[in-house]
Amino acid sequence: MVEWTDFERDTIKKLFENMNYEEVGPAALARCLIVYPWTQRYFGNFGNLYNAVAITTNPLIAKHGTVILHGLDRAVKNMDNIKETYTELSELHSEKLHVDPDNFRVNWMNCVIIVFTDCFNVNVKCFPTLVLQLLSDCLTIVLASKLGPAFTGDVQAAFQKFLGVVVSALGRQYH
Question: What is the pLDDT of residue 24?
Answer without folding.
Answer: 94
